[in-house]
Amino acid sequence: MDIAVLGGGNGSHAAAADLTEQGHRVRFWRRDREAFRPVLESGAITLEDFRGSRKVALTLATDDLGAAIRGAELIVVPMPAFAQEPMARSLARHLADGQVLFLPPGTFGCYAMTKALRGAGCRAEIAIGETGTLPWLTRKHGADHVAITTRATRLPTGIFPTRLHDHGLARIKAAFPAIEPVEDGLSAALMNAGPILHPPLILMNAGPLEHFEKWDIHNEGTQKSIRRVADALDAERIRARKALGYRPPHFPLADHYAGDGKWMYGNLAHEKLTDSGDWRERIDLKTHRYMQEDVRLGLAFLVSVAEWAKVQAPVARGLLALGSAVVGEDFRQTGRTLENLGLAKLSWSAMTALLRDGVQ
Length: 360
Known about the structure:
Elements: E1 2-6, H1 10-21, E2 25-29, H2 33-42, E3 44-49, E4 52-57, E5 60-62, H3 65-69, E6 74-76, H4 84-91, E7 100-103, H5 109-119, E8 127-131, E9 136-142, E10 145-151, E11 155-160, H6 165-175, E12 179-181, H7 185-189, H8 194-203, H9 206-211, E13 215-216, H10 224-243, H11 254-258, H12 269-276, E14 280-281, H13 289-308, H14 314-327, H15 331-334, H16 348-357
Helix pairs in contact: 4-5, 8-10, 8-13, 13-14
């Protein structure tokens, strides 16, 4: 299959290399030509995983977005949620009927990107799928070198709009066999693990993160008290899903730590993550994507959905307030909320119609 992979982060490099090794024809695009130069010059990425290290030759590495998108059946966008709407505006003149975008994960980016596309004049009939996490636990080890610690074994995925469910799901599943269909794009957004996992870890480890040059929030930073907060936060997410009529499995975060294969990354994922050492890193609490994506956008979205569904979410609201105080910005006002998306006054029947029919 012809696949375009967009972005310059860990997930984009993992996608480009891993999908190429699966036999797909991958065009890899990044905007920053200077940072992308090693890949542009070699046309390859060094991939490191349990099988060792090897060079993977791409079909195309380019900073020309049109060249990457033209004729692509699937467009994989593993970018932070705050980059989705600008990316949509850049994509608007290049997309064609029948193409499918995949956001791993999405933070309801399926709707936000569609709205941005329509606002930029794009009328192409496209499906956008989003899932609960990246398909890989991965970190870059250099400009053209990416390490994959483990691959997802279950990826709950919804399609927006649902009238294109079969087409979108089939296209994504051809590249990511681990996907499991969920009801719609909102259901998929409420599977997003980032806003559950990362806010307690960064906010309750704020002292060590600011004191030490590097700190592993998943190793030393994952203590029993922090786990209890994360479990309480996750319970609020699951209550919101149930209130909206979404069916199990809800992929509780506790299954990730149990390491029994029920969660998205399969057996012993947490142990593999901490053993790798790749998550011992410098995290700037004001600028890191754990704050800007998972708190400002993801947690704000969860709080707004819970309020809309009339579900109590005191832990989510409290963590959102703490993040706002750390950054000095009211995330409830600036984040990705149903209010800011123009959806807070919709009835459930109107929301269902939107999820089914999309943005015209």
